[in-house]
Amino acid sequence: MIKSQEIKKGTCIRLDGKLYFCIDFLHVKPGKGNTIMRTTLKDVVSGHVLEKRFNIGEALEDVRVERRPFQYTYADGDDFHFMNQETFDDVMIEKELITGVEFMKEGDILDVVSDASTETILYAEMPVKTQLKIVYTEPGLKGDTATNATKPAKLETGVEVRVPLFINEGEVIEVDTRDGSYLNRVK
């Protein structure tokens, strides 16, 4: 158990049977009355964000979470198999628990966050940037670098992203896994 004033960014607490990460907090001392903690909490499973106020000194159930690197090995339907980089155990994670799953290819290393007390996997997330090869796009034309025009390109994982006109098939690009945006060409 922790006191409400000990909440910081990244603290994980159990509230109403659900796990939440603190993404923002603020000590508020009104003119009258007691000091309160105003927090912004993100549900670990659904990703919903809620604002919650706690009185100073209020006891909360904290959850110890662990981040470990896992390597993606293969997919089996909607379940994905990962290898723990420390113990080499094979672990299966459902598609819904993985952020950036459409940009994942064999051999990628993901951060897997789990509840330390129950060893339950809460979620897995791809690195913010990943490098992928373009398997199909319309040919680029010389001199197409002046405008911000884009075209669709299919990547090796099967996902389609928008790339500048000068990018050609067979090139490797860097992609932001949060929103699927093109970042730059890899030389």
UniProtKB/TrEMBL annotation:
CDD domains in alphabetical order: S1_EF-P_repeat_2 (cd05794)
Keywords for this protein: Cytoplasm, Elongation factor, Protein biosynthesis
Taxonomic lineage: Bacteria, Pseudomonadati, Bacteroidota, Bacteroidia, Bacteroidales
Primary location class: cytoplasm
Pfam families attached to this UniProt entry: EFP, EFP_N, Elong-fact-P_C
Domain Translation elongation factor P/YeiP central per the UniProt entry, residue ranges: 67-122
Function description: Involved in peptide bond synthesis. Stimulates efficient translation and peptide-bond synthesis on native or reconstituted 70S ribosomes in vitro. Probably functions indirectly by altering the affinity of the ribosome for aminoacyl-tRNA, thus increasing their reactivity as acceptors for peptidyl transferase.
Cellular component, GO, one term: cytosol
Organism of derivation: Alloprevotella rava
Annotated pathway: Protein biosynthesis; polypeptide chain elongation
This protein's name: Elongation factor P
One function term, GO molecular function aspect: translation elongation factor activity
Entry's family note: Belongs to the elongation factor P family.
Origin superkingdom: Bacteria
UniProt KW 4Fe-4S keyword: no
GO biological process: peptide biosynthetic process
Keyword Protein biosynthesis: yes
InterPro entries given in the database record: Elong-fact-P_C (IPR015365), NA-bd_OB-fold (IPR012340), Rib_uL2_dom2 (IPR014722), Transl_elong_fac_P/YeiP (IPR020599), Transl_elong_KOW-like (IPR013185), Transl_elong_P/YeiP_cen (IPR001059), Transl_elong_P/YeiP_CS (IPR013852), Transl_elongation_fac_P (IPR011768)
Start and end residues of each Elongation factor P C-terminal domain: 130-185
